[in-house]
Amino acid sequence: MHPASDSLPLPPPAAQALSEALSARIRAEIAACGGWLAFERFMDLALYAPGLGYYSAGSTKLGPAGDFVTAPEVSPLFGRCVARQLREVAEHGFTEILEIGGGSGALAAQVLGELARSHDEPDRYLILEVSAELKERQRSHIAAAVPDLADRVEWIDCLSAHTRALVIANEVLDAIPTRVVRAANGTIEELGVTVTDDGGSFEPRYRPADGELLTVAQSLHLPDGYETEINLRARAFTRTLANAIERGVVFFVDYGYTAADYYHSQRSRGTLMCHYRHHAHEDPFTLVGLQDITSHVDFTATADAALEGGMEVLGYTTQAAFLINCGITDMLAEFDSADLRSYAPVAGQAQKLLSPAQMGERFKVLALAKGVSIPLTGFAQGDRTHTL
């Protein structure tokens, strides 16, 4: 991990005060734990501490005024393509959609709007959201964007057993707190957080790994000096989701790799990344509570966890292939290319979603199912399930 660049924007005083309050809470927990806190717990507090964490406080996170932009903020074409895939599966007896982590509400509005075009609206559109601030933002956005459909949207606090629904999780797994390990002198060590002698800053410190983390890390046969993430909590979340689903299809959209690429010899520093005001850097110990902290998704581990929960893989491909299969180029053709004022912005949005240098290759789509075994249009060409 490297210190954050000095070029990061300076937070306003109110945000700095919030960050210091959260830092004080984390320092107290480190002291209570004997001076060492697992990085997974540090990340958990930095992102989700009630009233103070990144996703729990009131700052704008998504969009041009926030820290990063997700695909639904890039273009409504994304949500329209997702809706087309959902419509295809809904014909097999599904009347509910469940979105996990609703972001700004843009994806829900786009999906509902597209389904309404063909009168295929779901009876209910459920959103599982842990952030009270984001929940309110979602309500406002959906009410403004699709007012006639807003009454179909409900917010839930937890998964219920015997779920029968189509499930969307866009950029959810990358925000689940992860554990970090390194191979050192033939042993496996886990990253933790301590406080500097002057009590003013957080710093990394390793100690021997144990338990499930050690077992998983040893199975990877990491060379000395190799540092990486192992997200046991994301695996547990996927198993929990799979067990809760009685019948349904889950679509995970996120940036990540198969295990073979995730733990490739050239990726020896891991994938941990932070985002603040559209600046990406690798220092999670700065701007605590004010920046997003993420790690890429191990899609092989995600698929394996789903299989343990009784699901099967229906498809795995790049975001670009999924969107093309779902008709994004047909949607683009709805705009008059001769009218540059209207066409150029939409074409630019599509380029960002599809380009290998931007989101097209880095983001993947994984489809998992229980009680449903049908070919999916989104994976008709370019399916990479065999690489998982």
Strand content: 15-25%
Order of helices and strands: HEHHHEHEHEEEEEHEHEHEEEEHEHHHE
For the termini, the CA-CA separation is 28 Å
Helix content: 25-40%
Number of helices: 13
CATH architecture: 3-Layer(aba) Sandwich
Largest sheet: number of strands, sense, barrel closure = 8 strands, mixed
Bulk shape: globular
**How many runs of DSSP E, i.e. beta strands?**
16
CATH structural class = Alpha Beta
Low-confidence stretches: none
Mean pLDDT: 93
**How many domains make up the coordinates?**
1
Fold-level CATH name: Rossmann fold
Helix-strand makeup class: alpha/beta
Spatial extent as radius of gyration:
21 Å
How would you portray this structure in words?
By secondary structure, this protein is α/β, with parallel strands linked by helices. It has helices at 13-32, 39-48, 71-74, 76-90, 106-117, 132-145, 211-219, 232-244, 259-262, 299-308, 319-325, 328-332, 340-354; strands at residues 37-38, 96-100, 124-128, 153-156, 163-170, 179-184, 187-195, 202-208, 227-230, 245-257, 273-276, 279-281, 292-294, 297-298, 312-318, 363-370. The strands form 3 sheets. Strands 2, 3, 4, 5, 10, 14, 15 and 16 form an 8-stranded mixed β-sheet that branches. Strands 1, 6, 7, 8 and 9 form a 5-stranded antiparallel β-sheet that branches. A 3-stranded antiparallel β-sheet has the order 12-11-13. Strand 7 (187-195) and strand 8 form a beta hairpin. Helix 4 crosses helix 5 and helix 8 (232-244) runs parallel beside helix 10 (299-308).
